[in-house]
């Protein structure tokens, strides 16, 4: 999917919501456990209930690979079930020496056909470049993450440039590919930094986790993070998919995603440049 197709979906749905499919078999409603593939059954009902209100789905790969081959099968079935006009993100946080990265890229882009993958930029250009060789596929680089440990390395200032490590990531990596190939992870919990981060990468999409259970502020993120093509995909996983853990889990997820979509509609009216 291209950035203009993504923006078209955002305008059509008046939403920049990404639903996180972090499906934990120990947390899904008990009545699903008797089905052949409880994880897929849960995801299927969540997708049916939420697809009209979101523009992206982000399965975190850890939740599937922890289940072994059966988990990979549930993941592939989920991916095949997602409507084709919805952007898909493999939250896998990969990145290795070039020849290994090339195989990660083939796994997620060719075998599974995800639109995008999250990548840790720590190993530098040759570890990221192999992911950029695929047409209409995206690399989503970790820039300033939502967790408290993000301060440990990402905020270290270079003695040479005076810039923080996450600022160096944002600046340097823009030389490796275009705004139609690279997005950045910026946590919603870092909302006070969105203005300066947007100034460093004015045109790129940001994937914004950390809203919902982690407490990030949607309005501040939207006010300072939005650009001419929205430029934001705000992710919520647990607050939507576990809105209820009973028979009504899908309708509760629908209600929660409608509520987020309605706020996003207002913010698109207010802040789209
Ligand atoms: O900085 C980051 C990068 C990735 N994540 C991932 O996003 C979701 C958040 O889930 P919630 O339930 O909405 O908190 C999860 O998959 C994380 O691994 C992140 O939170 N922060």
UniProtKB/TrEMBL annotation:
It holds the Pfam family OMPdecase. GO terms for molecular function: orotidine-5'-phosphate decarboxylase activity. Keywords: Decarboxylase, Lyase, Pyrimidine biosynthesis. It catalyses: orotidine 5'-phosphate + H(+) = UMP + CO2. Pathway: Pyrimidine metabolism; UMP biosynthesis via de novo pathway; UMP from orotate: step 2/2. InterPro entries: Aldolase_TIM (IPR013785), OMPdecase_type-2 (IPR011995), OMPdeCOase_dom (IPR001754), RibuloseP-bd_barrel (IPR011060). Its EC number is 4.1.1.23. Residues 16-253 form the Orotidine 5'-phosphate decarboxylase domain. PANTHER family: OROTIDINE 5'-PHOSPHATE DECARBOXYLASE (PTHR43375:SF1). NCBIfam families: pyrF_sub2. Belongs to the OMP decarboxylase family. Type 2 subfamily. This is Orotidine-5'-phosphate decarboxylase.
